[in-house]
Amino acid sequence: MVWLHGGALTQGASWYYPGAGMVQESLQIGLPVITVIIQYRLAAWGFLGGKEAAANGALNLGLYDQKLALEWVQQNIQNFGGDKTKVTVFGQSSGAMSIGYHMLNVNQNLFSGAIMESGSSTSVPALPAAKYQGNYDALVFIAGCANSSDTFQCLKTMDRDMLINATNTLFSQPAVYGSRPWGVAIDGDVIPASPSVLTARGKIARIPFISGNVMDEGTIFVKPQTIETDNDLLSFLEKDYLNRNASFFHNQPSTAALEALYPNVPALGSPYGTGNATFFGAQFKRAAAIYGDVHFHWARRNFLSVGVAKGINCWSYLFNQFTPTSAPWQGVFHTGEIPYVFMKFSPSDGDLYNLSKQMLAYWVSFAYNRSPAYVNNPTWEKYSKSFSNIEFTAAKTSMQHDNFRILGTSFIGAISDQFLEAR
In the CATH hierarchy, which top-level class contains the domain 2-420? Predict the structure, then answer.
């Protein structure tokens, strides 16, 4: 099982995800796995855009690092007792999105199963390199390379700490440069064409997969949290697409329809089930609901629908367990399932520990049998049977219909080309 960590292609490290707990538990249930936790280049080092990066073959270097690690597994895992024909990639957020990108290579043979936690190939836009030119130029200016005859060479050879400071400066100004200044670009190779177009056409690898979400995907992304008005809401949503593609936010009928489907009613917002509490600004929960559905819940349903149409065995989950150490405004937040998958709980944690053991059993069952249905408490039905999720909670894990906020996510799907495609 090869883990690809998340972190918006900007941050994250392998040391935060020790696989020992997974390995120990897998041994105890008689389904032993080997975990491979990889590093890959991030931020400007791994996902620099712009025409200069394209000309120097420096697009998507983080994805190529991931690919190289998977090739290493194919060549060497047998030396550790592993089976190279039974490689399962699993990842969260941008790690899960990366898995979705690698699956766009329909002939890929580096893994035979995938688990995508909170992310897929259409979670965020992947655009031509030129769409990132504004952020490239900004980095060049902040780093002091603007007067260089070769700005790429200047960035490449400058002091490491100076470049780190420049990237941090860029990342700290989302109102100017967007909340995700580093992104995946269409390079004709590891990303052969637009991921949203390829996904819509069913151009994904025919391998079994699991795709899931946490309940409150959007809460930790709402910044600033003091969103009070409709204009504040649209400004926040548009911020994610600055210097990339923002045609959606200049389409008044679409924005009006979105606002109608996600009304300014705190009891309907995220974190869900928290009544009329607003926590911060009056529209914080509304913003969290829309953000979570645009980037995660719709994207999951979209990828699963393609899998079902292609006859691929696929399963869906909803993680809906609030962890007491979380703040109430976070709800069941993005990344919240990771400690459960990695067995970071102990028997003294009671029901949370039991839920962690249950989830790990499903994950390793999928790795062994290419089906989590091997575990029967309860049996996890394929998505194609009833379009249902397994909903993970400490009180009772059960199968549920995947129809929450279906009108909203269906509308997002209908207009998705407006924010995923270059205009």
Answer: alpha beta
